[in-house]
UniProtKB/TrEMBL annotation:
<comment type="similarity">
    <text>Belongs to the ubiquitin-activating E1 family.</text>
</comment>
<dbReference type="GO" id="GO:0019948">
    <property type="term" value="F:SUMO activating enzyme activity"/>
</dbReference>
<dbReference type="Pfam" id="PF00899">
    <property type="entry name" value="ThiF"/>
</dbReference>
<dbReference type="InterPro" id="IPR000594">
    <property type="entry name" value="ThiF_NAD_FAD-bd"/>
</dbReference>
<comment type="pathway">
    <text>Protein modification; protein sumoylation.</text>
</comment>
<dbReference type="GO" id="GO:0016925">
    <property type="term" value="P:protein sumoylation"/>
</dbReference>
<protein>
    <recommendedName>
        <fullName>Ubiquitin-like 1-activating enzyme E1A</fullName>
    </recommendedName>
</protein>
<dbReference type="GO" id="GO:0031510">
    <property type="term" value="C:SUMO activating enzyme complex"/>
</dbReference>
<dbReference type="InterPro" id="IPR035985">
    <property type="entry name" value="Ubiquitin-activating_enz"/>
</dbReference>
<dbReference type="InterPro" id="IPR000011">
    <property type="entry name" value="UBQ/SUMO-activ_enz_E1-like"/>
</dbReference>
<dbReference type="GO" id="GO:0005737">
    <property type="term" value="C:cytoplasm"/>
</dbReference>
<feature type="domain" description="THIF-type NAD/FAD binding fold">
    <location>
        <begin position="47"/>
        <end position="372"/>
    </location>
</feature>
<keyword id="KW-0833">Ubl conjugation pathway</keyword>
<dbReference type="InterPro" id="IPR045886">
    <property type="entry name" value="ThiF/MoeB/HesA"/>
</dbReference>
<keyword id="KW-0539">Nucleus</keyword>
Length: 406
């Protein structure tokens, strides 16, 4: 079996380049840039705020993590920035396409001089400058149909961004086989989404102890309390609650119903954002080979509109909540990038990755949408629901099993 590391080339530091605009996450950049080799004490001081937030053990898991980031566009720029500044161990940028003029609109790791260069190779030196402690690798081939299970096993988290539905499900399948967390994300102008499939994930919630006793029991169809411990901190009784969350792959979530409590409540159904229908329609459009995005021909627009109405009915949503104006706006935004939207989505996705690496806080379960016009970010749990079996079991597969490309 081939060694996955043999196909990943490390990127050397480059002297010249530009930094992205400073922001809250960039508070550590100046300190990091002062020296490439520091003592453990210096590193602890550098990440002191993070360590105080989630503990030294969690920070150690973060600093040893190896992340795969596929398709290096504007959203991936934001994800890479936040993860690298948080002090992950290494990040591998995978992209087989080249920088175009369109990439210059919302991306800050590439410049006009990079047009025609491979996108991952062009971005890597600027990513490296953010944190010399993080190892930055590059893959310039198309990994979306990677067949080596060991390839996926070599990463701690796999993230696919701004690529088509079938490519995302292939990456998701590889992550499932390797028992690795998977994230998908995409931005379309004012709109976007984050999807998470973490398989089975355990995490700890720290909260002030209440008078109501905590029980080891199911909280939802996907979440259970499996342990709890008490401690005293600053004179307060604190409870450390360990929970287990079960997830569904993207291929199953695409057609999954809304949670039963929403289906039974007309008021909740009226509040479901129409972006849910539009995103699921786009997935279905790509899944059945109609193309990446609909063209602006009358026939194509009519077909996409009919498909959206069908998907809206499948979700049992009121017809009045899918307005023609919103659908027209969604189609018009497809394929475009807006920096404020990618900044929000990238920050949210990166923070969720940090949470799951540190095994603290509730992760996204399992689809988060973003409407930049309304500044709305609803989260929907999409899972196949069956009697007496809330979440379908996904059979464990040996690590040398072939990846199924659907």
């Amino acid at each position: 079996m081939a060694d996955p590391s043999a196909i990943v080339e490390p990127v050397p530091a480059v002297a010249n380049g530009t930094f992205p605009a400073p922001d809250a996450a960039g508070e550590t950049v100046a300190a990091i840039a002062q020296a490439e080799t520091v003592s453990a004490a210096d590193e602890i001081a550098l990440y002191d705020r993070q360590i105080r937030l989630w503990g030294l053990e969690a920070q150690n898991r973060i600093r040893n993590a190896n992340i795969l980031l596929v398709s290096i566009k504007a959203l991936a720029n934001e994800i890479a920035k936040n993860l690298v500044l948080a002090g992950i161990g290494s990040i591998t940028l995978a992209d087989h396409e080249v920088v175009t003029e369109d990439d210059l609109g919302a991306q800050f790791f590439v410049s006009e001089a990079d047009i025609g260069k491979n996108r991952a190779e062009a971005a890597a030196p600027q990513v490296q400058k953010l944190n010399p402690r993080v190892k930055v690798n590059v893959i310039t081939r198309d990994v979306r149909n990677e067949q080596l299970p060991a390839f996926y096993k070599s990463f701690d988290v796999i993230i696919g961004t701004d690529t088509d539905f079938l490519s995302l499900t292939t990456l998701n399948a590889g992550a499932r086989i390797a028992e690795r967390p998977f994230y998908a994300g995409s931005s379309h102008g004012f709109y976007g989404y984050i999807f998470a499939d973490l398989g089975t994930h355990e995490f700890v919630i720290e909260r002030e102890k209440s008078n109501r006793p905590t029980a080891k029991a199911a909280e939802t169809a996907t979440r259970s309390v499996i342990d709890f411990q008490d401690k005293v901190e600053n004179g307060k009784k604190i409870e450390m609650v360990t929970k287990r969350e079960l997830y569904t792959p993207l291929m199953l979530a695409k057609d999954s119903p809304l949670p039963p409590d929403m289906q039974k409540d007309p008021r909740k159904l009226r509040k479901v954002h129409p972006l849910l229908t539009c995103i699921r329609t786009l997935w279905d459009y790509q899944r059945h080979g109609h193309g990446t995005f609909p063209s602006h021909s009358p026939a194509d627009l009519q077909f996409f509109t009919s498909l959206a109405m069908e998907k809206h009915k499948e979700l049992k949503l009121p017809a009045a909540t899918l307005q023609a104006d919103f659908l027209k706006s969604f189609i018009g935004n497809l394929g475009s990038e807006l920096a404020p939207v990618t900044a929000f989505l990238g920050g949210q996705l990166a923070q969720d990755v940090i949470n799951i690496l540190g095994k603290r806080e509730q992760p996204i379960q399992n689809l988060m949408l973003f409407d930049g016009e309304e500044c709305a970010g609803p989260v929907y749990a999409l899972h196949p629901i069956f009697p007496d079996n809330p979440i379908p079991a996904v059979a464990a597969m040996p690590i040398d099993a072939p990846v199924m490309v659907i």
